[in-house]
Amino acid sequence: MQITVNPLLLKCWRQSAVALSALTLSLGLYASDLPEIPAQQVNNTMYQAFYWDAYPGLWADLPAMAAPLAERGITSMWLPPAAKAMNGSNSVGYDVYDFWDLGEFNQKGTTATRYGSRQQLQQALGALDQLGIQAYFDVVFNHRMGADAQEDIPGFGMAWTQYYLQGRQAHYTEQNWDYLWHDFNWDWTTFNGSDNTLYPGKWWGNTYHFPYLMGEDVDYNRFEVQQEMKAWGEWIINDVGFSGFRMDAIAHVDTDFTRNWINHVQWATAEDIFFVAEAWVSDISGYLDAVNSPHLRAFDFNLRDEFVLLSSGNKDMRWWGGLVNSHHRERAVTFVDNHDTSRAGNPYGMPQVINYKNQAYAYILLREHGIPAVFARDYDEFGMAPTLDKLIEARRYFAYGPGHEYAGNTEAVYAYVRAGLNDVPGTGLVMLISGRNWGVQQSFWMNSHQPNTTFYDYTGNVTGTVTTDAQGYANFPLNVSESSGWSVWVPQPGVQQPASITLRMTKDVGYGFSLFFTGSSPELSNWSGGIEATWTSGNVWELTIPDPGNFEWKTRKGPTGGSGQTWESGSNHNQSNLHPNFNGGF
């Protein structure tokens, strides 16, 4: 495969070390005003650190590339396939040849891979670790390419299926792997078939998608192959130093092997390993169910379909699909584009996301569910870095606490609230995005879940401030346009915000009714009709109010938009228990 290198982009990354000092200074001017998020609670934000025709020599350039991204809030990086591939230094890596050669052995006309040597890779991984960034290995399980010799397969004929694999010979040894080691060769018996044709006595295996994709299709029905790949997975995590895997074309690989491999690698380390499937299928939830491993996530291709529609300017912003809006929302890895969906010349004929792309990134970066991935081509080649930096920072410092979709979303505007962390002042946000290019500004009366709080638009698209009332409501404006139609309203630093508390009660009050909180303080209506709360998943009703100190309270049921008419039974609750059990009644 012929690779075209963009030397200007490569030069830009090599200059980034010089620019880093200026960037750090700029960030430092306001870093002290940003919320201090405990390290264990910082949101995971992934960066796909490559695209199809970019970054030869990436391992040497990676520390300088990663440093400013870490400053903004990137916490993990999906790296390109690091194993030796069929075309050596000309391969981007998906034509994998020797899993155990990470740029260490002279094969396929080179010792280093396209991205550098094994030593450079290890140095890059060490630098990422120092920056607090986890690295994910792009593993190509489906096939092998670049065999060293042909074989005469009985009942089939000649095929390129004999692999010599110097890296495997060096690292996959009986001394190193004990019960996981087996004495066998990578020859035709380790494959199911090629050119969509089975070899005699073989079957494709239990795959969720069509079984043959390309190259020599690896036979994961064979026990010895399974064991070697388990050893390799342990090696990548425990010896090489990666923290997870992006699993290429995995729906074409035997599902039982995938489940067993994931569970084994997780079992073999104390780390919490990240696994994400590239399952390019219509029913991604079905694929996750088929694999049935609690450790596996999946890229949300269905959500990207929504962004394609958004790009057309015809999306109804009230309704969103995708894995992230399903019962598997906790296992979604969201993205706008990647090296396959956005490639020069669009060889797959993919529908493109061109317009409203910043709005799409705001959607994936600021909502409660899904781990978002930022794509390098968007960041550098397409010049989106300035806007993406602000959105990545907003996720890093403000996008915390329960998420609430605005009930008044329209065909043109989608709004979403993060309530913030009670124990970290300054967190939380109100996000609004436009799906129309009307050239007007609209405001939306929304519950920020933060009473008496002054907000400003972190993106700078709308100027001025907004201050919420005692119940957390205010009018939040948005430019209804493509060019500036995304706003992220966050608590203004330097403005003393009153302490607040959130009352919660779990109760199904039935269709058309709401739960109202009432109590002994003005914030709770002095035992009048009460303050209407907000429904959240699990029939949990929430109300955030300025902390009144010592008080008593209970709930009332009433029609939505009205007041509480029917009292909760039993004794009053107090400030010592903010999410008590329901006492009964109504």
Descriptive report:
The chain is α+β, with helices and mostly antiparallel strands. Among the domains are: 141-282, TIM Barrel (Alpha-Beta Barrel); 403-491, Golgi alpha-mannosidase II (Immunoglobulin-like, Sandwich); 500-574, Immunoglobulin-like (Sandwich), CATH 2.60.40.10. The protein has 12 helices and 32 strands. The strands form 8 sheets. It has an 8-stranded parallel β-barrel with strand order 1-2-5-12-13-14-15-16, surrounded by 4 helices. A 6-stranded antiparallel beta sheet has the order 17-18-19-24-21-22, with helices on one face. Strands 26, 27, 30, 31 and 32 form a 5-stranded antiparallel beta sheet that branches. Strand 7 and strand 8 form a beta hairpin. Helix 1 runs parallel beside helix 2 (58-72) and helix 10 runs parallel beside helix 12 (385-397). The termini are far apart.
